[in-house]
Amino acid sequence: MFMRFSEIIRRHLGWCPNARSIGTAPAVRVNAPVSIDLPSPDGGEGRPGRIDRGFRLAVGSIKILLRNLRLLWFSLLTGLVMFFSLATSLYIQVVSGTNPFPGTGFVTYSPEVLIAKGSLQWLALTFGTTFICTFLNYFLVSGLITCVLFILSGKTISLKEGLARAWDHRVSLAGWAAVGALVGTASAFIMYSETGNIPVTFLALGAVFLFCVLTMFVLPAIVIDNQRLVPAIRDSISLFRKTWGEVVVCFGIFFLILFVLYFIFLIPIILIGFSSGSTASAGFAVILSMLVMIVLMFIGSTILGIATVGLYTTGRNGSLPQAFGDAKENFPV
Q1: The whole model's pTM is what?
Q2: Helix (H, G, I), strand (E, B) or coil at 113
């Protein structure tokens, strides 16, 4: 029985009763480091993580604007560019014999056809005005991106310096603006030539939408990483694949907030304007509601620009910028 017991001890404990005792220090066992994959604070790459990051990007962008109200200068300048774009669009409609306000009674006569729609002159005029408006818009967005980068890094920068730094990328910005003007002109020509063709119209609008999606990351790639146009386009496609969930959530929250705010302002305007039964009061209410919508759109354009910086850095670095939760005012004009 003793032999059986000693055999069991030697097998399981490695102890041999016949072994000689050696006076030595006790052995120290060094454990290899163990790597434990803990869930990231942003929720990982799954759906909950995308929703959380998108929500934090939206809220953080609004906080950054509220703590740096001087960024609203970009809203004002963007609004001026939008008004210029609207004026040029109305002018092209008038010279091509189209009533820009059908059914409103603002234009009581048939406009004279000076430039035929679809003609070479019409295409050149449409491309030229679209290029100017698009380039100015991209220039302002690039200046906003530059200023937001300085704010997130805790540094100070003026509006003038931010625009000056954006001007250094004018060649790439002009190239992308030319592509945008070409897409917009081609879409306008197709929709005019194929009036009533619903599938073709949707394809043209889809091309414009796809270009806008690419622009969201092309501009940060040009400004932040100083990339050329072709590499910026390639990287924008890759980054959108990584962050499409955050983009949908972030922009969805923005549009929801915009709708709620507009609805809040719209209720008293309607009650006051239409309660009296006066045509003048009703017209004033309509104009006031349109002005409220325009102001909200201008402010929203700046918030979207701030969020674009966060989305780009998130896709590039794989983590949400911490500054979106703790942004301080560092933007003197």
Answers
A1: 0.77
A2: strand
